[in-house]
Specification:
- The chain has four domains: 200 residues, 3-Layer(aba) Sandwich (Rossmann fold), CATH 3.40.50.300; 46 residues, no CATH class; 122 residues; 184 residues, P-loop containing nucleotide triphosphate hydrolases (Rossmann fold).
- It is built from 22 helices and 17 strands.
- Strands 3-4-2-5-9-1-10 form a seven-stranded parallel sheet.
- Helix 9 packs across helix 12, helix 11 packs antiparallel against helix 12 and helix 19 crosses helix 20.
Length: 591
């Protein structure tokens, strides 16, 4: 009998009895013999389900430390809500986290589905990644193909569509809610992944960045080059002449580099949107021709490349169109032009609008989970949540073997690092040598500092330290670290998403406190509006980084923080730091 079929409980005790019955059902149905909940897990499940039933809050914030078993809590809550005939999503930010959920779904035989991004699957017909699969390059309805039932992507997607709980990544879910669902699906004419009754968000502290990045157009030199290539193909094959459209995009990008006027910038973005839109008609013509001329065979290489570029153009147009929609609804005062060395990025300052328009309205009952909310009030303000049930789980890890050695005498701020860099290089070399034969991490805060540290390592230490460029190379480095002891990975973006448990990392070095770079205009503008957010982000990044190497109760690692500016961060934001972090700090009197 489902929970919705029983009489409404008349007391809190009766409510707890009902919840315990369903937790027991989860244990008996899916957990192995002898299963024991970790400390605080069962209580967290009870509180989340109770909050759902009481309907006092639509949002739960679960502040749960690394190793507390957040994924199991998510699975138990999902199962209980599924029993009440509610369907939902579990959202993950990293592929590694989705892999973990996939392993748990398989291990516990949960009747759920999981979908990754399309290019994590290969076409069984031509062995290409899914976006270049046979149905894509021939523009054929995949359901009409003999390989449909064997296709790993469509099999995973259809299972997730029909499952009461679907595990998706944030970007895939955002596309489904905000784009695919608003267009009739050619296969079913109904939304594949409509908004559901509940959404459980893992790594919830990342949501704002994910949504902001998802709706931030980016332009590089490669943007115009790719567009020219597709335009040449269309002209050569007498599809259409887009020379003028390419000129509009090229000149608009050039003008945007040279102007700061927000109204002008928005005007140029609207011109780019209009020019890209004319490509969409040609893209449909191209796909029709491919379907007619290459129904039984693979199109030539240049045609396949044109199809690939066509999908890229559609993505760029969609992102620019969405951004222009956002700016037109929030005014150009919220348009932030954010140039880097070779890339022009546009951000939106009105993040409350972004969260409401593209995220909150689709989530239903929402559980936000993370090990590092730091300050829940600042987090709620950042992601525009008005009220929430806050649940905090205690950290049960014994940290006696995991001290944080802090060197307060030398500050590594932008103004002071030049005076202290020689000491920094010397100290890093000493620590690496001290940990001979052990694997570790160096958090460098910026690519520039990464290169300077590498150039000042001793020849012996340089052999152990690996620097990566891009996500794929980082993944390869991590695989290598797990295969070979004594290696060290160094970079500015390894604060999150790593699971270097046990001997995969026994020490880590923070060359700088991980404040966001003020050379980023968006960050600088947000700082001027809300200094509390800037400090909160630094604390979250630091806590995330410290957690990369200690992943279970028996794990341990030594942490070194070489930037004296940590003192100010702790002094003015003591409430954001967990007590176990403060207790682990050992002051080093090294000048």
């Amino acid at each position: 009998m489902g929970m919705t079929d029983i009489l409404k409980p008349k007391s809190k005790d009766e409510l707890n009895t009902v919840i315990d019955t369903y937790i027991k059902d989860f244990e008996d149905t899916y957990m192995p013999m002898g299963f024991q909940w970790r400390k605080g897990q069962k209580e967290a499940v009870e509180q989340i389900v109770q909050t759902y039933l009481e309907k006092k809050y639509k949002v739960v914030i679960l502040d749960a430390p690394v190793g507390s078993g957040k994924s199991l809590i998510a699975m138990a809550v999902s199962h209980i809500l599924n029993i009440t005939k509610k369907k939902g999503y579990i959202l993950a930010s990293e592929i590694s986290l989705q892999d973990q959920y996939q392993n748990d779904i398989n291990r516990f035989k949960l009747p759920w589905g999981l979908v990754k991004g399309v290019d994590h699957y290969k076409c069984t017909d031509n062995d290409e990644k899914h976006s270049l699969g046979t149905c894509k390059i021939r523009n054929t309805n995949p359901r009409k193909m003999l390989c449909y039932n064997e296709c790993p992507y469509f099999s995973a997607r259809d299972m997730a569509v029909n499952a009461d709980t679907a595990v998706l990544n944030y970007n895939y879910w955002l596309i489904m809610q905000n784009f695919v669902n608003s267009h009739n699906n050619e296969e079913t004419r109904t939304p594949l992944f409509p908004p559901r009754d509940f959404t459980i968000c893992d790594e919830g502290h990342k949501i704002l960045d994910i949504v902001q990045n998802h709706y931030s157009p980016r332009f590089t030199k490669g943007t115009v080059e790719k567009l020219k290539k597709l335009s040449d193909f269309f002209r050569n094959h007498k599809v259409n002449d887009h020379t003028l459209d390419v000129d509009v995009v090229e000149s608009s990008i050039e003008e945007m580099w040279n102007t700061e006027d927000q109204d002008n910038l928005h005007g140029h973005l609207c011109s780019i949107e209009k020019a890209l839109k004319t490509f969409l008609i040609s893209i449909e013509k191209l796909k029709d021709r491919v379907e007619a001329e290459y129904q039984k065979k693979k199109p030539p290489v240049e045609w396949r490349e044109a199809l690939f570029l066509s999908d890229w153009v559609k993505d760029v147009h969609c992102k620019v169109e969405d951004y222009n929609y956002i700016i037109s609804h929030t005014t150009t005062r919220n348009l932030i032009k954010n140039p880097s060395a070779d890339e022009l990025i546009f951000n939106c300052l009105q993040e409350s609008y972004l969260m409401n328009r593209f995220f909150h309205q689709f989530t239903g009952f929402t559980v936000l989970m993370s090990a590092t909310f730091a300050d829940p009030k600042e987090y709620m303000r950042a992601v525009n949540i008005k009220g929430a049930k806050y649940i905090k789980m205690d950290n049960t890890f014994p940290f006696e073997k995991s001290p944080i050695y802090y060197y307060p005498k030398r500050r590594m701020t932008y103004k002071e690092i030049d005076n202290n860099k020689e000491w920094l290089y010397k100290k890093i070399n000493e620590i690496i040598s001290k940990h001979a034969g052990e694997s570790g991490i160096i958090h460098s805060a910026s690519y520039d500092l990464t290169m300077k540290i590498r150039d000042n390592l001793t020849p012996e230490n340089r052999k152990r330290v690996f620097v990566y460029e891009g996500t794929e190379e980082k993944r390869q480095m991590l695989d290598m670290m797990k295969a070979t002891k004594g290696k060290i990975i160094m970079g500015p973006s390894i604060l999150e998403g790593l699971d270097l448990k046990d001997e995969f990392s026994r020490f880590q070095i923070f060359a700088k406190v991980p404040y966001l770079s003020l050379s980023d205009r968006f960050v600088k503008t947000k700082l001027s509006i809300n200094p509390g957010w800037y400090k909160w982000r630094a604390v979250v990044s630091l806590l995330q980084g410290v957690g990369r190497s200690i992943r279970n109760e028996d794990d341990w690692a030594v942490t070194y923080i070489l930037d004296g500016s940590l003192s100010d961060l702790i002094h003015y934001n003591r409430h954001m730091f967990p007590n176990d972090f403060i207790r682990r700090i050992k002051i080093m009197d090294d000048i």
